[in-house]
Write a structure and sequence with these properties.
- There is one protein chain.
- The protein has 794 residues and is of the alpha/beta class.
- The chain contains 26 helices and 24 strands.
- The strands form six sheets. A seven-stranded mixed sheet has the order 18-19-17-16-20-23-24.
- Helix 2 packs antiparallel against helix 3 (158-166), helix 2 (133-152) packs parallel to helix 6 (197-248) and helix 8 packs antiparallel against helix 9.
- The chain binds adenosine-5'-triphosphate (ATP) and magnesium ion.
- Residues 332-335, 366-372, 479, 481, 510, 514, 549-551 line the site of adenosine-5'-triphosphate.
Length: 794
């Protein structure tokens, strides 16, 4: 008999090794397991009908992709389970369910076409008759685990546990457990395909153990939450009972000591009447909801904030100008003009305490004493000092806070600083106003404007507080490294006081009076135990620091001091006297020395001066020529303005070739390469024109630039030297770098008075009207005629 179309008259039958298949989208049936299966597809219905009529086994097999409607051979998994259809049920919505009992695994060989259902040739996979001892042992473990997991799962019928207990054959046990487990389909299928009993047991055991861990954990967490909930409920009930008892006893209604404390604090805080009324209303609300409700915590925090802010106006101590002067003198060396301005500021405040004093803004490189001057002012005024760091603030909410309804809302940094200071008339330093930046979260400088504007700051609004706070009594002081980065409206409200940085001599004095004593104390040394000679201090400044301020200097002093302290502590010496030689020993060889002499000793290198936010620096401009076609190559990350300056400088050298005694042929068949190293300095701006011109002139006339000379200035194509900015910082940088002569545009002569006197007399200044002056000063006229190449004379 063939297996083609079924014979309608007889009972349909298929050959022994062919079965009707029901492909499953999301169920894996295991042997020994009873499971209802929903059948929807027409072919599957036909298969079911056949199996029932022929009393044949149905092949249940997982399809690889649940989306496929008519799976072919490739789309089916290789191993399935033969099932006996125990019962057929049609549910109320017309769906047909077959309750299947898994019998035995089979492997799919091929599909057999020509049937109204999927039919396939298969081989049955027999279970091993004998079980190994290892499998027995694993089976026992598995049984224990399975019973354990059932006890952890809520709502599992007790029969299931009994059934598991009763199952003896390990292979059977593995299949039943695998079927019950809540694991991903591919994992289930994998278990089905695992034919070795031992292997399958191991895998099931492993999965089960993991599941138990997870269940245990989640149960523990659940219980803890429940306990917490119960605790809260218990407290609530107790509180209610307490209220009732108090009422019975005729006592006042449930007083919470915490709320009482807040109420007293409100009474004492000295808030403006409107604000106090608002706060009392909130307090009453807290009393009503006392202890329960999600709002209590945040409300309480808000009330804490409100009561702890310095609302009342204190009696500011009178300003004693003499004492103030003494404080300023005691804390800072030099800075005469700055101190003078601060005293004027204090004098005006003394005469008119309510008046609008300007807001001072200290501008200068790092470590020149801006922040510490602010602290001195607070000390001189005998008021608390508060610091608000604006560096990196780019969200208005950081200054103004978030509304109270936000989760975890806090007041902005102004109000926070006020609370810390604890006084409404504190000195508040707005540090680094130049580092404020706008972002999509709003522009914080708008809030800053409101803070600084005396017209508005009496009603400064912090979103968290929700009520205005009067900032008019706060003495604001701002600091910035670069005033150009401060937004113009903010700048407009402040009076800028510049601190340009210190000369070597000033640094020495600062070290003597402040840094050394401070570090001695910090390192637990007395002045007798350790001293540092002037030579040593000078060596530190010149060789180990390159800064306008004194921060690095102080750090290096500290390092030297630590070494000395160690020697004294180890008993190596009773006292240490640090000389210049020790400095090299402790800090290593000088880092910044000789660079100038070294670099500038060949033709084509000029020393320029650059202005930087940290106080001016020297930079080398190097020019060289290579065989080529007349190109100008520029490297060193130059900005556009600087590139144009370089072009102009080269043209100017060519135009003045004769005067510079450069043969015209020198420019032929060469490329000129101009390089400005010193990576950290932003290199744009026109002020390197003179230096580039000199470097190129030096290169083509083959004369080295004087190595003790630095220069700055812009050039015009006609050879005029034009003025530039940052003279003071540049001159100080030149002195720091150990240079002797500085070439400056003649039209900057008016700026020289800004340079402190000791520096002015330590350097030689040459004022440049034209580039000829620069050549004269930098290359030296006398040397020009010596060593000229002979061909020039021809
Ligand atoms: N003239 C001075 N006299 C005494 N000490 C000084 C002087 N200038 C600066 N200092 C000291 O230098 C250190 C650094 O100063 P400060 O922190 O005020 O610098 P800053 O200008 O605020 O720098 P930054 O811009 O980096 O914030 C402080 O310990 C300060 O006491
Ligand atoms: Mg500072």
């Amino acid at each position: 008999m063939t297996s083609t179309s079924p014979d309608p008259s007889a009972r349909p039958s298929l050959p022994e090794d062919v079965v009707a298949l029901v492909p499953m989208r999301n169920v894996v049936l295991f042997p020994h397991v009873l499971m209802p299966i929903t059948i929807g597809r027409t072919q599957s219905l036909a298969a079911l009908r056949y199996a029932v009529e022929a009393e044949a086994a149905l092949g249940i097999v997982l399809q690889k992709d649940a989306q496929v409607d008519e799976p072919g051979f490739e789309a089916l998994c290789a191993v399935g389970t033969l099932a006996k259809v125990v019962r057929q049920v049609t549910s109320r919505d017309g769906q047909i369910h077959a309750v299947c009992h898994g019998q035995q695994r089979f492997r799919l060989l091929e599909l057999v076409p020509g049937h109204p259902f999927l039919a396939a040739r298969i081989v049955r996979i027999e279970e091993p008759e004998q079980t190994s001892t290892a499998a027995e042992a694993l089976g026992m473990q598995l049984r224990e685990r399975a019973v354990e997991i059932l006890s952890l799962l809520p709502g599992v019928p007790a029969e299931l546990a009994h059934a598991l207990q009763a199952t003896r054959a390990p292979s059977q046990l593995a299949d039943i457990t695998a079927s019950l487990m809540d694991v991903e389909l591919p994992e289930k299928q994998m278990l089905l395909e695992m034919l070795s009993t031992e292997e399958r047991l191991k895998k099931v055991l492993e999965l089960l153990t993991h599941r138990i861990e997870v269940l245990r954990l989640s149960q523990e967490i659940g219980e803890r939450t429940k306990e917490q909930l119960q605790d809260r409920e218990r407290k609530f009930i107790l509180r209610e009972q307490l209220k009732t008892i108090q009422k019975e006893l005729g006592e006042e209604e449930g007083r919470d000591p915490e709320i009482d404390r807040l109420e007293q604090a409100v009474a004492k805080a000295g808030m403006p009447p409107d604000t106090e009324a608002h706060v009392r209303k909130e307090l009453a609300r807290l009393r009503r909801t006392s202890g329960s409700g999600a709002e209590t915590g945040p409300l309480q925090t808000w009330l804490e904030w409100m009561t702890e802010l310095p609302w009342s106006v204190p009696d500011s101590p009178p300003i004693d100008l003499g004492a103030a002067r003494a404080t300023l003198e005691a804390d800072h060396f030099g800075l005469e003009r700055v101190k003078q301005r601060i005293l004027e500021f204090l004098a005006v405040k003394k005469l008119n305490p309510q008046g609008r004093a300007p807001i001072l803004c200290f501008v200068g490189p790092p470590g020149v004493g801006k922040t510490s001057l602010g602290q001195s002012i607070a000390k001189a005024l005998q008021r608390p000092f508060a610091r608000v760091s604006l560096g990196g603030v780019h969200d208005e909410a950081e200054m103004r806070g978030h509304r109270r309804t936000y989760v975890g809302a806090m007041p902005g940094n102004i109000v926070q600083a006020l609370r810390k200071a604890g006084a409404r008339d504190c000195v508040m330093m707005l540090d680094e106003v130049d580092k404020l930046s706008a972002s999509y979260q709003g522009d914080p400088s708008a809030a800053l404007l409101e803070v600084l504007d005396p017209e508005q700051n009496a009603t400064f609004r912090d979103n968290y507080l929700g009520v205005p706070f009067d900032l008019s009594r706060v003495v604001f002081i701002a600091t910035a490294n670069v005033i150009d980065n401060v937004s113009p409206p903010v700048r407009d409200r402040m009076e800028v006081i510049e601190l340009p940085g210190y000369t070597q001599e000033e640094k020495l004095q600062i070290a003597h009076r402040y840094l050394v004593p401070r570090q001695l104390q910090a390192n637990g040394l007395s002045a007798e135990q350790c001293s540092i000679s002037d030579d040593a201090l000078n060596a530190i400044v010149a060789g180990h620091t390159r800064e306008a301020g004194v921060r690095q200097f102080e750090r290096e002093i500290a390092r030297v001091m630590r070494t000395a302290a160690m020697r004294v502590a180890e008993g190596e010496a009773a006292a240490a006297v640090v000389g210049a030689a020790h400095v090299e020993e402790i800090l290593g060889p000088a880092k910044f020395e000789r660079e100038v002499a070294l670099r500038a000793s060949v033709p084509g290198v000029a020393t320029g001066l650059a202005w930087t936010p940290v106080g001016g620096d020297i930079l080398f401009i190097e020019a060289t020529r290579v065989a080529g076609s007349g190109r100008l190559i520029l490297t060193g990350q130059l900005g556009d303005v600087m590139k144009e300056s370089a072009q102009a400088a080269l043209t100017l050298v060519k135009a003045n070739a004769a005067a510079l005694q450069i043969p015209a042929a020198a420019f032929e068949a060469v490329d000129v390469h101009l390089h400005v190293p010193a990576g950290a300095i932003p290199k744009d701006g026109p002020s390197a024109g003179v230096a580039m011109f000199v470097a190129l002139a030096s290169l083509f006339s083959d004369r080295a630039v004087r190595h003790d000379t630095a220069m700055t200035g812009e050039i015009s194509l006609r050879g005029l030297v034009l003025p530039v900015g940052g003279i003071k910082e540049k001159v100080l940088a030149a002195q720091r770098a150990g240079l002797a002569t500085v070439l400056l545009p003649a039209r900057n002569r008016k700026d020289l008075h800004e340079v402190p006197e000791p520096t002015r007399s330590a350097l030689r200044f040459v004022w440049l009207e034209t580039v000829d002056d620069a050549i004269q000063a930098a290359l030296g006229a006398g040397r020009a005629l010596q060593g000229r190449p002979q061909f020039e004379l021809m």
